[in-house]
Write a structure and sequence with these properties.
mainly alpha; Collagenase (Catalytic Domain); 23 helices; 5 strands; globular; metalloendopeptidase activity
């Protein structure tokens, strides 16, 4: 018995390294759990009044920490916010459009699903591509057209276009140009052999290296063609009504130009089945004739646009897709629009999150759009949207002097990705709106603290080491994040209305004294222009 107890070799078994490791790990786990419990208890007892420890605040902590560490570690922009949000909306629409047509679907939604199926159906295009385009003409025995068909098949359209020099734009030349632009705009609706030719063009102009996935292209087409049907799908499934109410509350707390009409989320009529069914009743799609569907919708859109000719456009009209990820100001109607697609994190945060994040993101965007009513173009329109010089000459002169400072500032920024300096004159309107948006939204946030919290600061986010004022500015910088290939960067500089994302942040923050105070920026910093700061509003 003793031998069995001591082991086969007659000695006590040794304690192996695996056993020691397991024991050590168990001790470490127990110690860590005990420390974690102690930290949580201490946090609740000693710091509960200072820190927000709700699940929503922890979510913010993770998001902000990830951004800060990614940027500090790699020196690159970690996220591309607008493309990511656009993709998020597209994926949701894809899921909705791919669901089989059900008995509960209204007629407009059924048509949207059929149009999507026809776009995704590439089989017919592949079969048709192998059949000569002259075949239907030959079959009908039309000799003249048959001859023209063969003649044009052997003629170089490219050489013909090269013969035209636009020094003397004759009506024929203008007509041909318009026709070409129409053809060019339809390339993305054709089969892959045409799309690969388009890719060669896009590779040079934007640096694109691959085709957009077919599903993504089809979602965008249906979304931009049947805007109210797809808007209805998205709103029913993915838009919470409290977002609309909170956004309206936010706008009312920020707005100083009360003549501006604000539109949030979606037009109410898209919830009216009869209205949106009637709107597209003339359209009848086939799952096997995508190009025919495209031509049908082009005609429908053109007729709808012409229908507004010589009519007074009511200010209640939207003219914006509810799924759009963007915000707008219209000078001619004096309205700002914030579609449902824009009201997502990290632009829009709900009531359960620190208000500093919302004011720094969607709050800045709200004031940005309001400020467009007073930029170098919007100032020319009165409160009713009429083109009218309602400013005095002295006001215009003073405005011009102030804007020159901003033009010079943004001209001085060199964008390494593009190899070019900014275009301060071209981007003036957006730069005015960026600067005014940040300044007035921050003031609105501080007013909210005074009014709603009696001057008591919001709880801090744990683990990030930032004040609420700092979080406001970080939230703005976060939503400006983007990344560009060199080709796209050059195109943005040469033709874009906005400054490069990096300098949208640096430009506005360097002009604002409250940012300098929040981060203790020295006057030698690129983020503190000091006495050289520019301000229009």
């Amino acid at each position: 018995m003793e031998m069995e107890r001591l082991g086969r070799e007659g000695s006590k078994p040794s304690v192996g390294p695996n056993t020691l490791l397991k024991a050590a790990l168990a001790v470490c786990v127990c110690v860590c759990i005990a420390l974690l419990i102690a930290v949580i208890n201490l946090s609740h007892k000693a710091s509960n009044s200072d820190f927000c420890l709700t699940p929503h605040c922890i979510e913010n902590h993770v998001m902000i920490s990830t951004c800060m560490h990614a940027e500090a570690g790699s020196g690159t922009t970690p996220f591309r916010i607008y493309p990511w949000l656009r993709q998020n909306v597209d994926l949701r629409l894809k899921e909705l459009l791919e669901q089989p047509i059900g008995g509960d679907d209204i007629e407009a939604v059924k048509k949207a699903k059929v149009l999507y199926v026809s776009c995704m159906n590439e089989c017919k295009n592949i079969v048709s591509a192998s059949i000569s385009r002259c075949y239907p003409i030959k079959r009908r025995g039309i000799s003249l057209l048959s001859g023209i068909c063969h003649a044009t098949s052997n003629y170089s359209v490219i050489q013909l276009l090269q013969m035209f020099v636009f020094f003397h734009p004759r009506p024929r030349t203008v007509a041909n140009y318009v026709l070409w632009r129409s053809v060019f705009s339809r390339i993305t609706t054709l089969s892959r052999r045409f799309l690969y030719r388009y890719l060669d063009f896009a590779r040079v102009t934007t640096g694109t290296t691959s085709l957009t996935p077919r599903w993504d292209k089809c979602v965008n087409y249906v979304e931009n063609t049947l805007i109210y049907a797809t808007g209805r799908l998205f709103v029913d499934k993915h838009f919470q009504e409290d977002k609309k109410h909170m956004m309206e509350e936010l706008i009312n707390g920020i707005r100083w130009a009360h003549a501006v009409l604000a539109k949030v989320g979606y037009p109410d009529f898209i919830l009216n089945d009869t209205y949106i069914n009637e709107d597209i009743k003339r359209l009848s799609f086939s799952e096997t004739d995508y190009f025919g569907n495209v031509m049908q919708t082009l005609k429908f859109i053109a007729q709808s646009d012409i229908g507004w000719l010589r009519k007074t456009v009511p200010r209640t009209e939207w003219f914006t897709n509810p799924t759009t990820v963007n915000a707008f100001y219209s000078s001619s109607t004096n309205q700002i629009r914030f579609p449902a697609g824009e009201l997502q994190k990290p632009f829009f945060w709900g009531l359960d999150y620190p208000r500093s994040l919302s004011y720094g993101a969607i709050g800045v965007i709200v004031v940005h759009e309001l400020t467009h009513g007073f930029d170098d173009n919007g100032r020319k329109y009165d409160k009713d949207g009429n083109l009218d010089q309602w400013w005095s000459n002295s006001s215009i002169t003073r405005f011009t002097e102030k804007t020159q400072c901003m033009i010079d500032q943004y001209n001085s920024y060199y964008w390494r990705e593009a190899g070019l300096n900014g275009k301060g004159k071209r981007t003036l309107a957006e730069n005015i709106a960026d600067n005014g948006g940040m300044r007035e939204s921050f003031r609105a946030y501080r007013r909210w603290i005074e009014k709603e919290r009696s001057g008591v600061e919001e709880h801090l986010l744990p683990g990030v080491g930032l004040t609420n004022n700092q979080l406001f500015f970080l939230s703005y910088a976060h939503v400006c994040c983007n990344a560009y290939r060199p080709e796209a960067a050059r195109h943005q500089i040469q033709s874009g209305a906005h400054s490069p994302p990096k300098y949208r942040v640096i430009g506005a923050m360097s002009n604002y004294e409250e940012f300098h105070k929040a981060f203790n920026c020295p006057e030698t910093s690129i983020l503190n222009r000091g006495t050289k700061s520019c301000r229009v509003w």
